[in-house]
Amino acid sequence: MATLSRFSTSTIVASNGLVPWLAAQGPLAYSPVEPPARDYFFQYSWILPGIFDPKVNLREHRYFGKYRKNSAKFLFDFWGDARKGCAAALQQYCELGHFSDSEVRAPLGAYHHVRKYYDTAGSLLIQHGSYQWISREDQPHIEQGEVLLYRGVGQGAVFRCLQFEPDDLTAANREIWRRYLHLQAEMLSDSVLSFNTIHDPRQAQRDRGPAPWNVAG
To answer: Residue 23: CB partners within 8 Å, gap ≥ 6?
Structure first.
């Protein structure tokens, strides 16, 4: 099994809040407003070894989990701008997550970022060390905290939204709902656990990188 990180990867803050960063405290608690001083903290095979397949040589450099550093160039560009003090102006939307017995809300940070290769304006979504770049055209409501999802579950042709009030459930179903929320909250409470719950760690040895969102954009 991959070794554990010597850094905290807990994302929980006071009052059951969840940060969208790698951690709520310690060296990995960096954000675009307070970026890390060194690229060392982007070297995931050293700071997040628990997300990699045991076959991966953890002594190799895996910046943002990518096999080739240049594959994550746009992320280095983004963090370089943050170090220059541009992060505050770049921010579009940022909100802590939250969990309780009645709901779980995932944290999300969204920042303006023009990808130099494409010369296209867009947003960089950040959650627990995972990144996805999206064009402004695809996500016009980011600044209101709304992310549009795309159909892709099974063979379904449309999204289906189930709406209900937990208080309307039977006692048995309410307990099932409570346990489900507890599992979701636990998954979001730690960056390593979040990745390993959603993805097969064997994928982290491949070029796509370890991220709930495609790290290459």
So the answer is: 7, 8, 9, 10, 11, 29, 191
Region 98-123: mean pLDDT is 82
Which residues are within 8 A (CB) of 157 and not within 5 positions of it... i.e. 6 or more apart? Answer: 151
Structural tokens at position 54? 């045991």
Beta strands in the chain (DSSP E): 12-13, 17-18, 91-95, 97-99, 104-105, 108-115, 120-127, 130-135
Taking CA atoms, 51 is separated from 47, 81, 168, 210, in Å, by: 10, 27, 39, 7
- Domain borders along the chain are 12-205
More confident residue, 69 or 155: 69
Residue 50: how many CA atoms within 13 Å on its side-chain side? 14
In this prediction, residues 102-126 reach a mean pLDDT of 81
Burial 158-196 (b: 16+ CB within 10 A, else e): eeeeeeeeeeeeeeeeeeeeeeebeebbebbbbbbbbbb
